[in-house]
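Work Package 3 (structural annotation) set out to generate three-dimensional models for the target panel prioritized at the project kickoff. During this period the team completed the workflow that converts sequence records into C-alpha cells, so that structures can be stored uniformly alongside our sequence database. As a representative example, we reproduce one entry of 69 residues exactly as it appears in the project archive.
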Amino acid sequence: MSPNIQSVSPTNIKVTKKSLLAEKIAAHPLMPVVELLLRKCETAATTFEKSVFEVDDIKQVSEWKIFID
C-alpha cells in the first residue's frame, strides 16, 4: 500500500463524518450567538457581575449576523 493512501475503515469514516458535522456546526450563522450565550452562562454561574446579565451584546451579535447573511 502506498504511503499517501489511507485505508478506509469504519473508524475513519466515523471520524470524517464527525469532523464534517463539526465544520457545518461551526459555520452556522448563529454560532457566534451561541458561543456568546455559553460564555455568558458560564460567567454568570460563577459571578454576579451585572454585565453578565445584560443582553445588549447578544442583540448586537445577532443583528450583525443577520445583516451579513
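Helices lie at 10-26, 31-46, 56-68.
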